[in-house]
Amino acid sequence: MRPVYLTIGILSVALGAIGAFLPLLPTVPFLLLAVFCFARSNKEWEQRILDHPTWGPQVRDWQERRAISRRSKIIAIVTLVAGAVFSWLTVGAPWAYASLAVVAISGSWIATRNE
User: Fold this and answer.
1) pTM score, two decimals?
2) C-alpha distances in angstroms, 66 versus 6, 21, 62, 101, 110?
3) Is there a smaller number of Cβ atoms within 10 Å at the N or the C end of the chain?
4) Cα–chain-centroid distance for residue 32?
């Protein structure tokens, strides 16, 4: 199973890196998945993510306290809303209602996490 976890971890880091530059693709959830996989396949790579100056504190906060910083919450919710507005302007109703549902469900979940 180690090669499977390693492959999923590497793919997750790649998607997280892409998400650092694309506003609609999240970074930290992919890094959380990568840390989970690397914990089972490559402890050194797991530690590198945890020690990263930008992403490490967010990953550790989630692992230790299931917490999301206020700044990260605001960025995530604003990005969700921007995506919904973009959907509304490009595809319109009724398709944009799916985006609004994602904003309502995901935004509510994010907003209610510990800080």
Assistant:
1) 0.79
2) 24, 24, 4, 24, 11
3) N
4) 8
Cross-strand partners of 70 = none
Instruction: Break the chain into its structural domains and give their ranges.
Output: 2-65, 70-111
**Six token digits for residue 4:** 């499977």
For residue 19 the two structure tokens come to 């998400």
Give me 52's structure tokens: 């990263």
Q: Quote the CA–CA distance of 86 and 7 in Å, as a whole number.
A: 33
User: How far is the C-alpha of 89 from the C-alpha of 48, rounded, in Å?
Assistant: 41
Given this model, what pLDDT does residue 80 score? Answer: 87
First-to-last alpha carbon distance for the chain, in angstroms, is 35
Mean pLDDT computed over 41-57:
95
